[in-house]
Specification:
51% of the residues lie in helices and 22% in strands. The chain has helices at residues 4-24, 31-70, 88-93, 116-129, 173-219, 224-248, 260-277, 297-313, 346-349, 366-377, and strands at residues 74-79, 82-86, 136-141, 147-159, 162-171, 256-258, 280-286, 293-295, 319-329, 332-339, 381-387, 391-399. The strands form three sheets. It has a five-stranded antiparallel sheet with strand order 2-1-5-4-3. The chain has a five-stranded mixed sheet with strand order 7-9-10-12-11, covered by helices on one side.
Length: 402
Amino acid sequence: MKITGQVTLLALSLIYLIIEFIYYGEKALTFETVLPVLLALVVGWQYDSYRYYIKISRENEQSYRSLIDSLPESVFIHHNNEILYVNDAAVTMMHAKDRDELLGHDIFEFIDPEYYERTIERMRIAKSKGKALPNMEHKIFRMDGVPIFFEVSTMSISYGGKKCLLTIGKDITNRRVETERLLQKSDKLALLGQMAAGIAHEIRNPLTSIKGFVQLFKADNDKKEYYDIVLSELERINTIVSEFLVLAKPSAAVFREKEITGVLNDVVTLINTQSILNNVEIVTDFEPKMPTIICEENQLKQVFINLLKNSIEAMPDGGKIHISSRNVKDGEIMVKITDEGVGIPEERMETLGEPFYTTKEKGTGLGLMTCFKIIEGHNGKLIISSHVGEGTSIVILLPSLQ
């Protein structure tokens, strides 16, 4: 640490003291004349310390920038949505001329409006948690207006004396396109044939009923129960179509920070009436103070409701369903649903989650397929084990924010 400030102020103070001594002799050596010398030492030392730490801070910031620039992933540092710094990879990915073309812009200028809510919520969580969030896919626009898919992680950092957010990720557009192409190439014909046959079978049955009862209306329109049957069959068609839409259409659902216990309690409350009517008791065992998760609440509720309905229907003579939640390890929680139902034959286990493979008399298999799709979209796992005559156990693993 250089002491130029301290030396300069001390020199000026000594010159002042010498002049005083020349004019006034020994009388000049008083507390009032010596005090400026002492103050010069203190102030000079403080000044030199300040300059030293400013220099260190600038060197650290420069090293920080050099490190960021060397990363192959695109990095954006932003404060109150304003872009403060980007690395070379980000400039290249965004097809910008240079950094200055990106700096100062509002980060939401480049994000697809469909992803606004998701981004705002993740930024809020990142600020409050102070650690990197799990990767998530966003749709953004380059400087030339071309849309790309950007897989990112966000965390809170200190930059330039401010509490900022660092967003780091990579362009996965090519990977996404290639994956979809390969899947379509390998599965398209088989899946279309399978689904076409299933759809024809599933929709033909209720349509046949509707056709028959409409014909009966002509002969006897006093049978009001016919109306109920027709409406029931129409609702069945609507349910099948709705399940297909959930599987087929892309979703930009808003993922928020939630406590899994609250989600499970809501689901139990919703389905409790149905369980009581079927002589089924739902027993809960939720671990207290569970870490939060990032999820789309309605989608997770749909998963748990589908699974609980399956368990209830698997116990025609009644029984118990056990639901438990545990923090199994850092960064992961577990939800387990166990029933005392008829179980699933071993030969059926391999086809679970495939459309139109079901053990139910009027099932489509789409409900369980939807569950797998939703859990996969939450970066989680759904594991099913079962024994005929003993029951079925379902384990769901989800990433947490612990």
